[in-house]
From TrEMBL:
GO molecular function, one term: oxidoreductase activity
Record family assignment: Belongs to the short-chain dehydrogenases/reductases (SDR) family.
Signal peptide bounds: 1-25
SUPFAM superfamilies per record: NAD(P)-binding Rossmann-fold domains (SSF51735)
Domain Ketoreductase positions: 45-228
Gene3D superfamilies in UniProt: NAD(P)-binding Rossmann-like Domain
Taxonomic superkingdom: Bacteria
Entry keywords, A to Z: Oxidoreductase, Signal
Protein's recorded name: SDR family oxidoreductase
Amino acid sequence: MLRGAAAGAGAVGALGLLGSATATAAAPAAATTGVRTRSRRFAGKVVLITGGTSGIGEATARGFASAGAKVAFCGRRTERGRAVERDIRRSGGEATYLPADVRVPAEVKRFVDRSVERYGRLDIAFNNAGIQVQKPLHETSVAEWDDTTDTNARGVFLAMKYQIPHLLAGGGGQIIVNSSVGAVVGRPGLSLYQSSKQAVLALVKSAALEYGSRGVRVNAVLPGITDTAMIRPPGLDDATWERAKTALGKLNVDGLGTVADPEHIATAVLAMAGDEFGYLTGVALPVDGGIAAGRRMLLPES
Ligand SMILES: NC(=O)c1ccc[n+]([C@@H]2O[C@H](COP(=O)([O-])OP(=O)(O)OC[C@H]3O[C@@H](n4cnc5c(N)ncnc54)[C@H](OP(=O)(O)O)[C@@H]3O)[C@@H](O)[C@H]2O)c1
């Protein structure tokens, strides 16, 4: 399995399990077993993914490709993007990596337009690229605010802005945005991240109303804590990370075990994109082990 690079240590640090560092260095991504697909049910479909070079985006790219879709994905790490592309093709799938930074309008436009040029149309977009900064609000710099909102919120706006004309030209399609359960619950130390993730829910709901009559469905997925480089502190040994994941899993509903694998989220994205879910639009679907449902009441023992 390919290995990823980290964007932050938010969830772990937020729980105080491993300190509160904001990580930017490389950390291994989870070993994956792949999304289980029933068939080549996306054969002939063209899928665009922002941030497909690791984690949830990579798992979703692999999932769609193994279900027969032609997948174009972007990210800034060219070497890694090419390795993911190669790996998907070796497994018999069709994928193209195109470098693009979602903060830069011209790069997002080029990524979208070139993908459509290459594969002829656009059916499904998964706007997934994101970063996380974990800090107390008053210690968050204006530059960190700008970078996070430019990536997580403005980046989604730019992707949608350039994708929608292609979806309309093709008679419809769909957009799925990767938000976070953090959009609907608070978490100390993550106010910046959660704000950026809530902003995109407004884009999803309004766009669902705006484009529904022209055949475009727009939805969001809200992952819970997922084992990717985003939350795994760099340099952490596997045994410590396994213990941390077990502790983090306690935020889930009892019985759902540890944190999610990227494939749990990818499986939900593929399901939402399927024709079976053709009645679903304007929805923010938590795939979060029950975190959004609330917290168990702990009563004092009598
Ligand atoms: N892991 C979790 O617990 C969790 C929970 C809820 C939601 N999410 C969301 O899931 C999404 C994917 O994150 P992940 O957990 O899979 O972590 P990850 O492995 O760090 O993946 C992040 C992806 O976003 C891309 N990216 C970041 N900044 C970018 C930029 N400026 N331009 C283009 N691509 C960019 C990265 O590619 P490059 O580095 O190559 O640019 C990478 O492919 C994020 O939106 C995150 O907020 C994650």
